Records
---
Amino acid sequence: MAESTFDRAAFSARLGTRRLGRRLIARGEVSSTNDVAWEALAEGAPDGAAVVADVQTAGRGRDGRRWHQSAGQGLALSLLLHPGCERRQLATLPLIAGLALARALERLGASAELKWPNDLLLSGRKVSGILAESRGAPQGGDAVVVGAGVNVLQSPEDFPPELAPLATSLAMEGCATTREAVAAEFLNELEPLWTLMQEGGREQVLEAWRARAGIWGREVRAQTPAGPCVRSTRQSCARLPRFRRYRFSPAPPSAFSFLTSRRGVSSRSCSPSARKRRGAPSHNRANKPA
């Protein structure tokens, strides 16, 4: 197995956390850093253990999409967490991670826009994606792995043709930094937000996310695996039912509606069975924005 080129010393010198990233697993090549994190959990890895890799051969994004990563050019990081909050609070974890990463990139000189639910954009193109997965821990309770992929050093030629018009990197946007700096600053920003969430500060964290999100007043698209979609702008949100409950599971709910009112990103299950229980007309609309 090839050794990782990730500079542990540079990472540690910049890391200012108490827990997150204090155990670091660095690999040269893996199928997925999330998978390595789950394996580490089975072997007793502590809360806050982090996994990084130079190359992922099967890195995954939301809805089973593949995350492309050029060898040594991007950051692939997965973080193992043992939540100390209620299970329902876990739905907001991808938003918390996105907010932390946006703040980290800002510290490094790049002003990223948050795209609900799990993307970061620079100049309108994707620079990062986040994937959170939840499972039962061998010791009992829940465990969560938060995976973050960040394009750091890539040039346009490093992206496949189908991604080149949609993707960018920190280097392409004029931000000179390293994978190690991005990883450390991400964890530095995430730890206080995650602590605040665990201590009951959910609304405070979500308001900070809302303040940075770039979706307000724009048309958004929601789509089910079956194909139907809902389009809504801030002005037309009043025509859709309002919800304030976030839902979390290893796989996305089969159907839910969402709004882009600045009052909050809101969602609920609107599967036919759920709607029947509420006495609402049955329809098959919406699942996650594209």
---
Amino acid sequence: MVDQVEAEQGLVRYGKGLLQDMLGKAAGEAIQGIAELVGEDIEVGSVKLRQIPAIELRKFIKAPSGILIGVGLNIQGDATGNILLVYNPEVAFGLVDKITGRPSNETSTLDGMGDVLGEMGNIVGSFFLNSLSNDTGMRLIPSPPVVMVHKAEKIMDFALQQLPAGVSSIFITQSQFRTSNRKVNGDFLVVSTAQFLEAIVRRHRSLSQVCDGSS
């Protein structure tokens, strides 16, 4: 098992540029899954990769209105991590209207509608992890989604509680997305350890070398 320091050294050695490209591609495909579901083009912002102390994760997302709606999935298989979709309530309600074909502004509560956002989480998680699996040859699958209606700190606790014991710093991949009319917008987040990212880059390089050798 590679420890955190070794993994961080591996990321420096392999170069974060490759990692940024892989994560950016995967995030773009994940958001495309939302676009296909709601039937609208969605603009994807630049993908940012940053390292923060694990204890600061709860404060990473700000919510002036207090309450957010999150859809969380664990990454399982050859590596582990977390995927989070985070929305303001009115945006989540609008997504439910679009997905279910309801008139605009009809949904005002998630009572009985959590499964709709959960299914969107399934699609996003599958698109994201399939992209990484294709680039690395790794087996990466999403867990069943968890839909949360909480303050931002509680939603981020979902990811924090899944981290391995003793992890002092984490990496957050973040991309914001929106439709051209801005009626649908949100944050796509992947919370991961250095070990997860180092494994992805290392496996990608190994797969590339195999492919180059057989060509």
---
Amino acid sequence: MAITTVGEALSKCVMPPIEHTRSWGNAGPGCLWRSSWYETAGWQGGNTVPTSGMAGQALTVSPEHHFRYTNPQGGQKKYLSKLQATYTYSTGSTLSLTCGSHYLADRLWHNSGLVVTDTAEQAVNSVAWPARDANGTSDGEGVWFGLEVAVTLGAHATTTVNYTNSQGVAGRIGIILTTEINALARGLLHVMRMDSGDTGVRSVQSVTLSTSMLSGTATLVAFRPMVLAMLSYGRMQKSFLGPIDLGFPEFPSDCCPMLGGNASSAFPLMLSEWIFAEG
């Protein structure tokens, strides 16, 4: 039976909370999105680069070295009820607080095999996403697409993406920019700018790099943003959000959580605590 009141959202929380700690060991500019998928600095450890090839793989299980997510039991539904998050960074012997944001997304698909030195069109022809878009289908409504740096890249490039949108219209063109200063470090997530009017990505047919990235490893990733928590400068400089603040989002079964965010400093330590409710 679905949870319908704030009281139920609080009383049906599943304990203990899920804690997540990540430290980005590679310098990167503040205010660019980061993914903690490959980062090893944190007690959860990091994930390995996939080997699924350009067509990629649909993701249906929580990864071994990331956010620990389990499906609800007995036909119940699962919701995010509470979130507490903060960033810190070290300046010599001083631990300071900084501002930024945390996001939690459902990672639907990723691939391997992108040749970062090849400027010819590279075929992707992605396999179907799992049925976890905003409407519970594989059509891609609310699904974003991006390029994730797994091993630091050697040079900047613009990536042109040929994709099919969530309405089934093929031949759409998206742009991924990695041209910002220091935008090449491991852990950075460069999100695609969709074609005008599009609200999601159903599949990807090909990608083309504007110039060689010289070295490094990048993977392509499709994901559905679920929660975004903003942190601003202030006395505590952290965020505590309850079910009303969060909008009480429902998380699907077989969700593959992906955490990250952005911060105003180059070497942030990301700390967060997540509490789900089932009912």
